[in-house]
Amino acid sequence: MIVSIVTCLILGTPIPTPRTAARSLNLVPTPMHVLRAKGTFRIGHNTSIVFSDQYPDDRFAAEQLMEEVLTDIGERIEPTSKRSHQGIALERLKVPVSTSDFGQGYRLDVTPAKVTVSASTSAGMFYGIQTLKQLIRANRKTNSIPACRIVDWPALKYRGWQHDISRGPIPTYGFLMKEVRTLSEFKLNMLTLYTEHVFKLKKHPTIAPPDGISAEEISDLSSYAKQFHVELVGNFQSFGHFANILKVPGYEDLGENKRVLSPAKEESYKFLSDVYSEIAPAYSSPLFDINCDEVSGLGDGPSKDLVKELGVGGLYARHINRVADLLRPYGKTPMMWGDIALHYPEIVPKLPKDLIVLPWAYDPRPNFDNQILPFTKFGLQFIVCPGVSCWGQIWPDLDRATVNISNFIRDGAKNGALGSLNTSWDDDGQNFFNDNWYEFVWGAECSWKPALPTKSRTADEVRTERIDRYNEEFSSVFFGLKDSSVTDAMLKLTALRKNPIAGGLKNSAFWRDPVVAFTKLPNPDALQTYLSDALAISYTLRQAKAKATHNAPALDYAVFASRRARFLGESLIAVEESIGGDQTRIRELAPQLTELKDSYTDLWQRENSTWWLDKNIAKFDALNATIQKLSK
Fold first, then answer.
1. FRET label pair with 280: which of 103, 208, 218, 565, CA 20 to 30 Å apart?
2. With contact defined as beta carbons under 8 Å apart, do 259 and 243 qualify?
3. For the whole model, what pTM was predicted?
């Protein structure tokens, strides 16, 4: 993509050169082009934000900037439509900043006399304001921000995230709003809520739990997200992973087996038609994720004869086409996970031509072309789907996630992806979304400017440099801190899983009987090292929270993860000492676990409804009962 020469000529400015001085600025995502200049611009109580009444969306962006200045500098500046030769000006361009900026490009010029944010669209203006906010949050000295010129636009049209709301935690409406506000600051612009049984259906009222999400909430959230230029994409699992519906009395007969909807029954399509009639209109987005992944056992039940006639792949393709037909009256373009089509590539030409494929993989492999090329060969559009590696974990595997996210998005961009969708999953129903800000913001970094190789550097070298730089920046751009202490602690926390004491930092390791765990330890001598590391991590995170000016409550979740990791070590040391005759630590474990349970309850209720919480609390109680027996 090339910066529009016409734009630069019209504005009377030099054509931007590739980023040279951006390394001295903390900005996420990395802008396409940054040039540093001499001097600074000082923000004070006389500073104004000037915008045109012709563009009401710009007032919303201006108000966001006003909030940032108040939080970080303590000055109250007001948006106005009155022209000024000083202050911060929001100006509309007649042409885009790039020939292919998807209507999202912007320019930001900071001089000692004035700041100008320029864009041809409201989305571009919004993103320019987000960059200006980061100059204030993460780059200012007292009240002054560095002079610079930024010309910027995204490499990918869609830069999204997925929140799993169906395998345990159901987020509150207020928390979903927070997600939108927070991640839109990093220029993410698409959200989908993975949905199985949690949508409250008027035609099928017994399926959703009491705390399920309603059509009215979805409609309201769609409108709310639009202000932040986030598109809320429709979602309903329409083939596999159907167990939560099939176990509801009266719906068992729709199953191919206990977890897959049967494509052999017309009642299945009547049910899907009912579902879409309520869910599809609630979403204003033209995109709709039908999922349809992992349909193991297809052909073992009522569709056995159809599989003999069409094959598993042929029957799968037929189902996808029928589902697409059901959605067409609502003006929806279907999106579908790509795993089954990869197993049966012969069906790809039979899929709907307007289908958007979602190839997914979560491992840190060096190349993902094999996930992508079978679809591009037939001209299908696609969005790559990496993952944050949080599922089943006390703390996400950040090392795995950063490589997976970067490499998959890089290969998607290289092969013409529409965008990326960074996924979180709640496989065991125990995870907190607040654990995943680091990975989602890294996804924003990679989607805006993928880590593509250059003439002088390999893809791996570019990625490694970008990760190192991101780790220096994250603490400042997300938490408003002056150093990288939070990121360093988070990386040390993820590295604890390499110690054999940690059990891979899996949730299952936390719930295990500590006596059994101790007897299986390959190296008990590692206990003290592990425990001292966990204590140091917890201390650093607590200290950082006290200094954070933005998103400080999110650090409570990292602290809690470090406390759970520490408890793993404490419980094993307690067993070791009790074997030697000292029961002191064993007796201390139960009160510690009660404190952890209370903290878990508090953190859960900050982001989720009460649905499913009792199942996880029962795990704390069961482990406590085991420990009580040990203490006796």
1. 103
2. yes
3. 0.95
Contact 577, 584 (CB under 8 A): yes
d(CA 371, CA 365) in angstroms, rounded, equals 11
Average pLDDT, the chain: 94
Task: Please give the span between the terminal C-alpha atoms of the chain, in angstroms, as a whole number.
Answer: 70
For the chain, how many residues are written? 632
Smallest CA-to-CA distance from 573 within 506, 528, 542 is with 528
Reported as a pLDDT band with limits 50, 70 and 90, residue 5 is very low
**What kind and span of H or E run contains 316?**
helix 304-327
What's the rounded Cα separation, in Å, for the pair 438 and 442? 6
The secondary structure of residue 19, as a DSSP letter, is P
Residues 568-584: what's their mean pLDDT? 89
* CA dist list (Å): 106 to 117, 131, 227, 326, 376: 7, 10, 17, 39, 30
Tokens of residue 107, six digits: 């320019």
What is the rounded distance in angstroms from the CA atom of residue 58 to the CA atom of residue 132?
A: 14
Nearest to 284 by CA among 215, 352, 237, 238: 215
pLDDT at res. 349: 95
CA distance 568 to 517: 10
Q: How far apart are CA 605 and CA 564, in angstroms?
A: 18
Identify which of 367, 359, 363, 411 has the alpha carbon closest to the alpha carbon of residue 385: 359
Contact 299, 264 (CB under 8 A): no
